[in-house]
């Protein structure tokens, strides 16, 4: 499977033309957003339009999303994502809603320019991308905030709410979807490590070497369902809310980017959330910070002893995955600064957690959870 090279490279004028042709909307303001392997535009449009499926124009605007060619070619990809978005909104989870186009559908395949298109002659995937329009939901990414214990705890609560909401969600597209960023593909990182410094390669291999005994042999015993697949700080939104005492509090209440949503293990979703809270936490011991997020999750949902025991390896695997794939992809697209964001703290944090025993980590997290439980007595 190709990684990070068949990305749309859409000029502004084409965004304007497609918004008009597909959705009957006139773009009056546009901003290109950073992304890994898709291309997204935040657009605001004129109130006058000729789309019979839109009763009222959103003042917050829309996201016109161009999905990379590999995922666009996956059967059922867009239908499953959109089914998930409609389902989540009905369950009270704030997520973008798909907008119906002039053909009465929520997505359309279009031929668009691709990044490094001249070098893609040997790529078997169709050089067309799925285009869909999503209602923009306001808020700022949690990654822009200082990670306090309260924010980290709420982050975990929100993932638990998400998992509760998708308990009764199913769509065949989620089960047939091949997501490279899932737990099952971790061993394939061995094929992407050319160019890594020796010490970093050794660190990654230390994680990959224990995958068969800790993850693979236990896969059938890990609870499965529909998972988000990328519950990181760029995809989780916060809003400022006022209390009755006129105090301002930050509330985590929105989630973006459902391209990696698939049928997988819940513990993988939790592990990757913990990996990102751990990687970006600067206000306290980052391992303790991850413990606050885990405590939030456990306040609403249960994890078995097996699932608890593999969380550390899931965290390490996600950090390896992000660091290795981003380094690999950066060699293809050196203009994409987003690909370097993980590397800022990622390698040092990966070394820190690899040098921490599982027993020590679980004990640290147990103390954090017990502290919350004592407050609720």
UniProtKB/TrEMBL annotation:
Which EC number(s) does UniProt give?
2.7.1.81
Question: What domain of life does the native source organism fall in?
Answer: Eukaryota
Q: Name one GO molecular function term.
A: hydroxylysine kinase activity
Reaction equation(s) it catalyzes: (5R)-5-hydroxy-L-lysine + GTP = (5R)-5-phosphooxy-L-lysine + GDP + H(+)
Per the record, its GO cellular-component terms are: cytoplasm
Keywords of this protein's UniProt record, alphabetized? Cytoplasm, Kinase, Transferase
What range(s) does the Aminoglycoside phosphotransferase domain occupy? 62-301
Top EC class, one word: transferase
> Can you say where in the cell this protein is located?
Cytoplasm
Which Pfam families is this protein grouped with? APH
Assigned protein family = Belongs to the aminoglycoside phosphotransferase family.
PANTHER family given in the database record = AMINOGLYCOSIDE PHOSPHOTRANSFERASE DOMAIN-CONTAINING PROTEIN-RELATED (PTHR21064), HYDROXYLYSINE KINASE (PTHR21064:SF1)
* UniProt function note: Catalyzes the GTP-dependent phosphorylation of 5-hydroxy-L-lysine.
UniProt name for this protein: Hydroxylysine kinase
Question: Organism source for this protein?
Answer: Nephila pilipes
- Gene name of the record: HYKK
């Amino acid at each position: 499977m190709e990684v990070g090279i068949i990305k749309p490279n859409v000029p502004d004028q084409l965004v304007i033309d497609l918004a008009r042709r597909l959705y009957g909307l006139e773009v009056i303001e546009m901003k290109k957003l950073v992304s890994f392997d898709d291309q997204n535009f935040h657009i605001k449009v004129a109130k006058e339009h000729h789309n019979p499926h839109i009763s009222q124009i959103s003042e917050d605007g829309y996201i016109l999303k161009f999905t990379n060619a590999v995922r666009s070619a996956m059967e059922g990809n867009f239908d499953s994502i959109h089914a998930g978005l409609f389902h989540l909104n009905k369950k009270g989870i704030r997520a973008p809603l798909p907008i119906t186009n002039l053909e009465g559908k929520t997505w359309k395949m279009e031929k668009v320019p691709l990044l490094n298109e001249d070098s893609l002659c040997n790529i078997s995937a169709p050089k067309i991308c799925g285009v869909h329009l999503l209602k923009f939901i306001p808020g700022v990414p949690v990654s822009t905030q200082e990670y306090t214990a309260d924010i980290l705890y709420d982050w975990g609560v929100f993932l638990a709410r998400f998992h509760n909401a998708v308990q009764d969600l199913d769509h065949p597209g989620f089960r047939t979807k091949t997501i490279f960023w899932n737990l099952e593909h971790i061993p394939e990182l061995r094929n992407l490590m050319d160019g890594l410094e020796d010490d970093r390669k050794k660190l990654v291999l230390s994680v990959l070497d224990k995958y068969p005994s800790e993850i693979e042999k236990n896969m059938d015993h890990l609870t499965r369902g529909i998972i988000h697949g990328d519950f990181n700080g760029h995809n989780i939104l916060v809003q400022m809310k006022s209390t009755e005492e006129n105090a301002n509090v930050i509330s985590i209440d929105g989630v973006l980017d459902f391209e990696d949503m698939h049928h997988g293990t819940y513990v993988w979703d939790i592990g990757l959330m913990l990996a990102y809270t751990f990687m970006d936490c600067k206000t306290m011991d980052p391992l303790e910070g991850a413990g606050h997020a885990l405590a939030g999750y456990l306040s609403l949902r249960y994890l078995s002893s097996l699932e608890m025991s593999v969380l550390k390896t899931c965290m390490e695997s996600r950090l390896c995955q992000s660091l290795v794939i981003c380094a690999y992809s950066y060699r293809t697209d050196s203009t994409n600064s987003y690909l370097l964001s993980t590397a800022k703290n990622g390698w040092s944090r990966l070394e820190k957690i690899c040098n921490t025993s599982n027993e020590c980590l679980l004990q640290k997290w147990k103390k954090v959870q017990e502290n919350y439980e004592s407050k609720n007595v």
